[in-house]
Fold these 4 entries.
Entry 1:
Amino acid sequence: MVKKVFSVKGQEMKDIELNDDVFGCEISEGAIYYAIKNELANRRVGTASTKTRGEVRGSTQKPWRQKGTGHARAGRRRSPVWVGGGIVFGPKPRDFGYKIPKKMKRLAMKSILSLKAKGDKLKIIEDFSIESGKTKDLVKILKNIVPDERTVFVLKDDDKMLRRAGHNIPWLKFLSYNRLCAHELFYGKNIIMLETAAGKLNDFYSVKG
């Protein structure tokens, strides 16, 4: 697959050859679904907690005698049927995270990249950095490339100044080429990728296994 490389001014500069195994593979909707589901599950905090009848505050004394009062039988005020009593089968702190096979995750990433590339939602731009780290300098460049909508920026490395410049842009998300996120890539309206990052992805995801 051949894609255009754009300058920071939004002008076409040259062509770049992308690996069809990465950017032109057969799309697996199942792999995408399971990868996104896995990432969302791993994000869950799992701190919800309720108290059982043995943990709530209250006396263990029988409220009234068993027979002769006209009331229903009652053993203790901590009973779940009483106001202020324990919760039956309520949530407890737990870890919702789990792992999926590496091959499935790789297939999901390649499927999403191929999906975006076929839909012309993937743009490759020349390598650049924001030495000042100022948001306004990055905004000037982005205006020439993509509209103000949910966008994923794939970096060639951990460029701290570039990340700092885009920190205050609510619709922009940064990802490193070797730490992609299926959820962000799939739901991003556009994907911007540095030229070097595209070259590294050619090798990173074309490796078998």
Entry 2:
Amino acid sequence: MTSPSGPTSVVSAAPAAVKERLASLDAFRGFDILTMVFVNYIAGMKAIPFILRHASAEMDTFTLTDVVFPGFLFIVGVSIPLALAKRGAEGRTGLALVGHVLVRTLALLFLGVVLVNEDRFSAAAAGIGKDLWYFLATLAVFALWAVVPKGAAPAKRRLHLALKIAAAVLLLALVVVFRGQGEDGRVTWLQTSWWGILGMIGWTYLAGCLLYLASRGDRAVLAGAVGLMTALYIGSRHGALDFLGPINGFLNIGSLFGSHSAIVAAGMLAGTLFLPGKDIAAPRTRVRFLAVLGTALLLAGYVLRPLHGFSKIGGTESYCLATAGICCLVFLLVFVVLDIYKKGKKAAAFILPAGRNPLLAYLLPGVIGDAAALLGGVLHIDLWRIIWPFAETGGLAGILNAAVMTGVVLILTTLLGRAGLMLKL
């Protein structure tokens, strides 16, 4: 972070300042993750308004639904300075911080690959039904990454450790027996046709954290990185990375470390506002910075639009910059309402559990679907059609059905969180 006296190390931030809890951060994240659940439920439905559908690859535009994923990447960026500063204040060294980042990245990549292979799963080749495989795998993930409460009694800690060991063994066994089948009929193991939402978050999180640690949070460097990442994507579109051959094909460097990582870098710029420092502590200064940052990103997106147009599917530089700007301005609005004027906190309280436990909220729809399929098989009824009667017809009824299911996910996230199930990679 740059201040009038120069850069401030992320690992030496004052603990008291790092503990500042932003209601706007949790509320924005909660709203975004629930919106992601909702749009996933209505995906593929008939008679859905265009604003709630993903724009196709050939369209030079983006919809409300297309802003959801950039919103989460932006919040990942905002959270990085706060999380790294908190760990630095606890005495973590630079090497320990890098180790923590790598472990989280690997966990996200693993989950992303597992989820993107769901459509390829072959029950015949694996010797286990897809619904049962994914239900058990998700339960193992819950146990493996459940947070052990601080101050827990030794007996409870031993129980948590035993559960984590059992979950790790189960997950390893499930991964070993996994088999998928491609369009050509060939039976294969887990593949990375693409990294999935969680995998993309993992790669961009890695890029953001390493950049932040290397630059020590200097805002000028972070701002420059947004430009360099944008240039990286543009160069990749015009063959500048072709010399990397299969490496570029495997990672899609221009998209992951270029345009999408630029959103995370923009979020980190915003996140530096909430670290210790007299030059940024004043609410007015924070508001002005966020307003300028959001407007600049939005304008940059429109200025670069003639190059490759707005495209979520292509992850174009103009789409990523414009949506990052929109997310920054929305975050500003939420920050002003909740953290400056202290208004609407009661109204926003219902979405906070999803914001504080986002991985659980993201995975629960899959658990609900798998559990419904398994129970329906035992009872010999189509239970999923009972709780999801308008999936095929869509329209207003389908939208309301999706809203109800999203509400169920929120309720379960809240109840499980109160029961002590908090997931943290």
Entry 3:
Amino acid sequence: MDLSIIIPLYNEADSLPELKAWIDRALKDFSYEIIFVDDGSTDGSWDEISRLASLARNDKEEARNDKEGARNNVRGIRFRRNYGKSAALYEGFAAAEGEIVVTMDADLQDSPEEIPEMVRMIREEGYDLVSGWKQHRKDNALTKNLPSKLYNATARRVTGIKLHDMNCGLKAYRQEVVKNIEVYGEMHRYIPYLAKNAGFSKIGEKPVHHQKRKYGKSKFGVDRFVNGLLDLMSLWFLSRFGGKPMHFFGTSGILMFLVGFVMTIWIIVEKLVLQGRGLHYRAVTDQPLFYLALVALVLGVILFLAGFIGEMVSRSAAGRNSYQIKERL
């Protein structure tokens, strides 16, 4: 099978028939499966997925009777409740069987007509992952466009991946990529960074058309950008120090302790010098610097202990020797 099209969705029943027909028109030269992942919808989306799957099975049976292989299939995964896009993609990746895996949103804002070129870039140019770039967004400039630009600029700076639209839902991957990364929490925004950390460094970008939402309303608010930046910091920290927490906490603790120690010595020496010269001096406990030194010493010890405990946890983790092996001879 050429492609697996993974479509996470939440309350998008009106869009699904049109989206399925659009995919069929755009990918008539490919064999593919469509995997709809219903993230706890309450509007009848699952009924629509079931109907589309039934139609696809009937088409497949007819093709078999005509001795022609069916070129597409519809599958569905339904969550008991709403877990979020990362959970939907995780299950979709696990179920995907195609040589190349494509993700796209169900709201008709991503165009399936972009997929053949993204597939070509993977097959002919050797990319591990191709991400879409919505150059001309059809969203509200104040609530989405501006925050998106700030978010992507920060993501490029932190991850070192030069993508203009890290969070674009339309992406294509080699199957090997999605089988070797774990998407959890809200980390679907950073799949290119997860792929890079797993050793898949050839990441490309393709400008794509962005359509206006036709049905329903957006499920995302401005708060997702704040959460996204926090997730980015978490992911960066884990990728840098997740396996060696003592390198961060231990170093920070030692530096903080040394700062406190130097300030303490300074206070004591200053008092002794002034006392030896018969000059007026303040009691150590009357000096603000004394309390700053005390705080620095305590924080230094706490940070060092945090690194030590983190190191013990890391060394006891089941995946401490889990590495991405490209090939063996």
Entry 4:
Amino acid sequence: MDISIIIPLYNEDESLPELSEWIARVVTQNSFSYEVIMIDDGSTDNSWNVIESIAASNNHVKGIKFQRNYGKSAALNEGFKAAKGDVVITMDADMQDSPDEIPALYKMVVEGGYDIVSGWKQKRYDPLTKTIPTKFFNAVTRWRSGIQLHDFNCGLKAYRNKVVKSIEVYGEMHRYIPVIAKWAGFRKIGEKVVEHRSRKYGVTKFGWERFINGFLDLATISFVSKFGKSPMHFFGLYGTLCFMLGFIMSVYMVVAKFVYIDYSLTNKPVFYIALTVMVIGMQMFLAGFIAELLARNAPERNAYLIEKKLGV
């Protein structure tokens, strides 16, 4: 199969018929073998009935329905598990992503050799309250990850099948799939300017809190990717440094007490600073020790991505 198209959705019953017809028209014109996987993320409207109706008339359309709303990352993760196409394309269900981009994205992965191609909505139809924070968020992510993409959160992306089978997306991590993929060893990440269409149906499902969650998730994924299998390297290092700093300060004060008889330890702010730093250092060291025990007993502790085998 050439293409799997994954569409996570929440309360998008109005747009689904038009979107499915548009996708079918594009892939048929380009003679692609394909499947469309629609993931209903606990919609409270008529979305699932619409999906069932579309699937009844188009055997390329498949559906997954969640019991409740879990979020876009969970929907994408389930879609990735089910995808069978050589190229996996994700798009939003709100008609702001154009299916006309599918052939070019497919070509960049198959002929261009990219692991991931991310859409870049260079011209956006969003208010400034959304575009300005988005630009800042993308700049920070570029700096932290080293991936030179302009629009990390664009829903329109294309992946080599091996990429989606090698990564796990959870929480709010859908914003950082290129980052997750890079740290999993997939480094050929490209970008394509895509059309951003104004919303035709419904309302946006994301509020201002997504920016706060986004930065928290970036900190999480940065830490886990680097220290997930060896947390002691982080907590032990900085815990030891904190403890040694407090210990040196304490030794200095004890020596000063013997040299200067009238030297009062408890009247000095540095005394309390030294104690606090030593306690923090011990707590960080213990946190690293406990995290190391958990990591050593995790079932995936020896799970590694293997690209090729020869004679094994």
